[in-house]
Here is the input.
Amino acid sequence: MQKSGAARSGSPLLDVFYDQRSRLIGLAARITGCRSHAEDIVHEAFMKVDDAGETEQIRSQASYLTRVVRNLSIDHYRRRQFEERLISQDTDSYEAPVHHAETPEALVSDQQLLERVSGALADLPERTRYAFEMCRIHGMKQKDIAKALGVSPPLVHAMIREALLHCREKAL
Here is the structure.
């Protein structure tokens, strides 16, 4: 890897970064479980360090870099675990049993449940209701809903989850 202008100009912190790069990638890979993500994290750490400016006040620059990479790796790992939990919970909700109404009482019960769900949806903010309906009723992908609403896909996922929990709470 070629050193940047900042590293060639004698920045001790960036010199340490280049010397420690493979060790930092190894550290990040152990935490995240993925070398590719580790390389991205070390690059992000480099960008943060490069933007930091005054580094003369840092006593142990190698420790500082290690701490930055470690913290970014832990944040990445936690974010990925959180997203995986949300996705698995969302997948579980698709597996709801289908009930076939065979008696007049069952038909009335199903109709009442549908009215409660409809009322629960009406309680939601318009944007949240739209995201839920587009995903669950119309089968639209969350990334497409995000584009239509001008928000991020994780926010759409959170809105759908919020709507689902609200409906379950109100309908049961």
